[in-house]
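User: Show me an example of a complex going from sequences to C-alpha cells.

Assistant: Sure. Here are the input components:
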Amino acid sequence: MRKVVALVRRELIAYFSSPLAYMVLTAFLFLQGYVFYLIIAFLNNPRTEAMAPLRLFFGGTIFFWLFLLFVIPVITMRLVSEERRSGTIEPLLTSPVTEGQVITGKFLAALIFYIILWLPTVIYVLILKHYTAIDLGPVASGYLGVLLLGILFLGVGTFTSTLAKNQLIAAVFAFAAIVILFSVGLIQQLLVSSSAIRQALGYMNLWTQMDDFARGIVDTRHIVYQLSVGLMFLYFAAKSLEVKKWR
Amino acid sequence: MIEVEHLGKTFVDTPAVDDVSFFVPEGQVLGFLGPNGAGKTTTMRMITGFLPPSTGRVVVAGVDLDQNPVDLRRNLGYLPETVPLYPEMRVDEYLRFRADIEGVPRGEIAANMDYVIERCMLGDVRRQVIGTLSKGYRQRVGLAGALVHKPPVLILDEPTVGLDPNQIIKIRELIRELGRNHTIILSTHILPEVEEVCQRVLIIDRGKIVADGPPEELRTRLVGNPVVRVRLEGANGAGAEALAGLDGVIKVSPVEVDLYRVEHAPEADPRSSIFHLAVEHGWTLTELAPERASLEDVFVRLTTHEPAPGSQPQSGTEEAHDA
C-alpha cells in the first residue's frame, strides 16, 4: 500500500512539473466555461422545455465527449511509455514492487489528475444554486457518471501507454481505443439488424449511460459495465508490463 | 551470496549470454570485464530479474529468482548503465521515493537518506531538481538511489562512465569502501578500475567467461614471467652476459645498447643483485624498473580474435577463438 502511495505521489509530481498539465487544465476550464455559457443561453430561451439544467452539462453536448476523447489520452500517454523511453522502468521493476502495484499507482495518479480537472466545475453548480433551486441528486449522479467514465477511459489509456515507448503513439492508441469503445454502442447499434445484438450493444452505449446518470438515474448495470471494463484494461496493463520484460 | 548457474540468454537467434556460471561469496567485489556487447549488461539484468533468463538460475542471498523475484530484489541495489532518473524530481524527493518503493521501514527512511546523501556527497544538491544536475552528480544520485535501502548486494553497471577524473577517483573510493560490507558486482571496461577496486575479475567475451581470478593472478598467468628493465651505462654490451648469470634470471634480451629486458622467475626478484652487479663492474645503473604488464594486456589478449603476433596461445584464448 505504502509503495502504491509512493508511486502515486511520484506520478503527481511528474504531472504538475510539466507544462502539459497546466495547458490541459486551462483548456478544459475554458471549454467547460464555454459549454456552461451555451447551456445557460439555451435554457434562457423561453421556447426551451423545462429540464434539469446540468443534464446538458454532463454528457448532453458533443463538447463533453470530444474533449474527453482528446484529454484522456493526453493524461495517460506518458504513464508507462515515458518510463520505458527514459529507462527508469529498469530500476523501478528491479525494486521490490509488482507490476500490479506500478499500474495501480500510475492509474490512481491519472484518476486524481482527472478529478482535479473536474473540481473547478463545482463552481457552476454553486452559481446555479445561487440563482435557482436545483436538485442536487442528478448533479451528484452526474459527477458519479463522470468518475466512472474516467475510470473506464483512463484504464484504457493506462493500458495503451504500456504498448509504446513513444508517448505520441501511446496517445494515438488510446484515442483509437476510446473512440471504438464510445462508438461501439452509439453507432454500431444503428448498423446491426439482429435485435439481440442491437440490444446488447445498447447496453454498451456510453452516451445513454451518461445521460441516465445526468438525469439522476443510477443504474447498477452501467456501473458494473464501466468499472469492469476499466479494471479489465488495468489488468491487461499489468500483464503487458510483465510481458514487455520478455522481449 | 550470488550464485549464477548455467545462465543463458538468447535474443531471437543470437546467444547474448551463453552458459555463464559463477559464485560470488559474501563481501567480495567482483569486476565484470569485457568489450562492448560482450554480454555484461545482459548478465546483470538477468541477475536483477529485469530480463528473464532463457536458461539457468540465479540465487541471491539464498533467494531463488525464479521462486521469489520480489524478495530477491529486496536484497539488491542496482544501478543501470544509463543511470535512469526522473528529471523532474528533486534529489531528496527521488531518494524518498526509492526508499518507499524499496520498502525501507518508515522510521529508518530519514536516517538512510542522510546516510546515502553523505556517502554519495550530495549534501549541497539535496533540494535541487535532478534534471539540472551535472552528469557526475546524477551518477551519484543514481548510486544513492541504489543504496538507500542498504542492500547487502550491489550490482553496478559501469558506475564511473562519463565522469571526470576527480569524480572517478571519488566514486572508486566509495565503491572500495562499500566493498567492506557489501557484495558487489561491478562491470566496466576501464581496466585500472578493476585492478584498483576488485578482488576478483571475470572477463567475459561473446557471452562466455574467458578468465576468472584475482587481478594479479590473471596478470601472471596470462602475461608470463615478470620483467625488469635495466640500463647499465658503461657496460658496452657486456651487460647481457653478466645479467644472465644472476640467480632467478630466465632470459635477457637487449633492447638498445646498455638497455636490457630481464625476464625472471616470479618468486625471485633480481633487482638488488643487479645493483650489486653494477657496483662490482663499475657500471652506472640509470634505470631499474619492473615492467608491469597491465591487465590491459590480458584483456586485449583474451578478447582479440586474431592471435596477436608473438603471443603464446593461452588457455583462455582458445575458448575465445571457438566462441
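The lines above are the inputs; the final block is the predicted structure for all two components together. The interface with chain B takes residues 2-3, 5-7, 9-10, 13-14, 17-18, 86-98, 245-246 of chain A (CB under 8 Å).
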